[in-house]
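Hi support team,

I'm filing this because I wasn't sure whether my run with 6-O-phosphono-beta-D-fructofuranose finished correctly. The job status page said complete, but I'd like someone to confirm that the output block is well-formed before I use it downstream. Pasting the exact inputs I used:
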Amino acid sequence: MKRIGVLTSGGDAPGMNAAIRAVVRKAIYHDMEVYGIYNGYQGLMDGKIEQLNVGSVGDIIQRGGTILYSARCEEFKTDEGQNKGIEQLKKLGIEGLIVIGGDGSFQGAAKLTAKGFPCIGIPGTIDNDIAGTDYTIGFDTALNTIIEAVDKIRDTATSHERTYVIEVMGRDAGDLALWAGLANGAESVLIPEKDEPFENVVDRLKRGSERGKKHSIIILAEGVGSGFEYGKKIEEATNFETRVTVLGHIQRGGRPTGADRVLASRLAGKAVDLLLDGKGGRMVGIQNNQLVDHDIIEALNQKHNVDMSLYQLMTEISI
Ligand code: F6P
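And here is everything the job wrote out:
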C-alpha cells in the first residue's frame, strides 16, 4: 500500500492529535503518502482531503482536540454515503484508511471494509467503552481532568459541610465514574453497569455523618440519569445540604497526559503496520500492555466490560 488516509470521527478525545502525528510520521518513514480527511465521514463524502507531510503534524502532540476536526455523521450510515466516500478516496488513489474514534466511527470503518476498502480502527474516546482494548485514547486525560475538578469541589464540600453529586461523562460505560470514584475517595459511585440501591447510598451518607464526616462526594455517570434529579432525592432523603455539579465538556478537552500520548503513538504505529501488511477490517488495541488487533466487526459485536473488581474494592473501602 502506497497511499493512505486518516480521519477522526465522533466525540473528540485528548491524544487524537498524537495518534494523527504518529500515523503520518510512521507512514512517511515507510515511504507511504498520507492524506488527512477533515470533519470525519462528512468531510470524506465532501472530499475535504489534503496531503499531510512531516511538518503538517509538528507541534500538535501536546494539543487536545483534533487538527482534522471531527463530526458525527448520519448520512454515512447509508449505502449512498459510504459509496460517495469510497469514490472520493479512489479519486485520489488512496488505498487504505485509518479511522480514529469510538464505536460509531468503527461501524463506518467496518462498512467501508465490507465494500472492499481496507480500514483500520484506532480506539479514541474518553468513555473507554470499546471492546478489544483495555484503554482508549483520551480516557486517562479525562480521568485526570475529573480528578482535579473533584479535588477542587471537595475543598468547598468540606468548608460548607455539604454533600456533592458530581455528574461525569459516560453514556453507556461507567469507567470514568468508577476510576474517578476510586481516585477521589468518593462515598458512592453510580454507573450504568451496576444497580446501586438508593437506600445503600443514603445509609452510607448517614453512617459517615454519624462518624463526624464533614462532607460527602457521590460520582454519577451520565448514563445513570440526571445528577440534578439524583441530588434532589439525596437532599430529601437525608436533609443534608446537597449541591450538584455537571462537569460536561471540560472532560473532553485539554493537554493529553503522558499515558495518552504514548498509547496514541503506539496504537497508531500498529495501525500503520497493519496497512503496510495490506490488512483491513481490523481494530488495534492494547491488552495487558501488549499491542493487539482484532476483527473490527467481532469487536463491535462484543460489549466492553467495566472492571467489576474495582467496583467491589470501591464498596469495601467507602464504608
Ligand atoms: O462519547 C464521548 C462522549 O463525551 C460521551 O461521554 C457523551 O455522552 C457524548 O460524547 C457527548 O456528545 P456530544 O459532544 O456530541 O454532545
